[in-house]
Amino acid sequence: MTKEIKLTIDGQEIVASEGQNILDAALENDIYIPHLCHHPDLKPVGACRLCGIEIDGGKMTMSCMTPVQDGIDVKTDSPAISQARKIALELLIADHHMDCLACAAASDCGLLDTSAYLGIQPDRLARLRPSDKGLPIDASNPFFQFDPNKCVVCGICVRTCDEIVGLGALGFINRGFKTVIGTFGNKSFVDSICESCGECVVRCPVGALAPKRPQFPAREVQTTCVYCGVGCGIYLGVSGDKVVSVRGDRERPTNNGNLCVKGRYGFKFINHPDRLTTPLIKKDGEFVEATWDEALELVATKLADRKGEQFAALASAKCTSEENYLIQKFTRAVMGTNSVDHCARL
Ligand code: SF4
Ligand code: SF4
Ligand code: SF4
Questions:
Q1: 3-class DSSP state for residue 39?
Q2: Which pLDDT belongs to residue 102?
Q3: Fewest CB within 10 angstroms: 186, 292, 306, 307, which?
Q4: Would you place residue 101 in the very low, low, confident or very high pLDDT band (cuts 50, 70, 90)?
């Protein structure tokens, strides 16, 4: 059993778990500490220098890199902390293309949130030399694009692809002020080993990695991805009568919110105009529309003629477990054969 640790943050007594870092413990208890490079799914690295704290009146330390300890007194703000944060953030903003109105991340941007929290003033920014970055945008991926001019080099995408996806498609290129994120050999995303899962895109705290055509749903429906036997939990975003977005369900233990490229981006078939909505029966070499009664009658007649080893069933991951159970039961008990398989094994 994990040991409980009692500490005080800004005068509030909290209970954390042994090994937890102070930033996560604070956030879990609704105490906000600014941060850009931290994500609860990833190992902390202390790169953005925004989450500074003071422990028992000592020197500033990064809360994401400091484990909780019994009896410590943590302060999340002081004149020294505030000044250090503002300088770190102003330097990031000065090196960032600020076209917020046209940015896909404008409604959910870590840079805007931390700027508002720290009260960054335009007159202080005016004294800094603005970014002259003119790096090309990589729009080669069909689902998302990468704008290095907006990247804050937090490394969340690099760690996501490495720690969660296990692919390591991304890394840091160059050093110091010229550091950028790129694929191995600095190839375009589409020519790299990237599998387009979008896990880095959903974790990017700014608009550097962003969906190409973001759409905002009016409501969401909790359901299960129909593509394969993993059965990842998803929320389908709906606007009117159309599905416009998918996000992973973090509460579903099958996938903890993670998705592959099919589950995240392959939802267009749902409202595609070419999708079949009525049965088709071949007559005189041509498919013609039929009623469900006609189609079921035809299938029942044909099945009755093909019992035994003339018959085999291939079940679908798009069906529920109960439907798949019925398919194997029907194959064995009614059609009299064990020739049954499932597409999830392919
Ligand atoms: S989309 Fe997925 S595979 Fe591609 S770089 Fe991002 S995390 Fe890695
Ligand atoms: S692309 Fe996004 S997640 Fe990756 S380093 Fe830049 S800001 Fe961070
Ligand atoms: S998101 Fe990918 S892995 Fe998960 S169920 Fe769908 S197809 Fe399978």
A1: coil
A2: 85
A3: 292
A4: confident
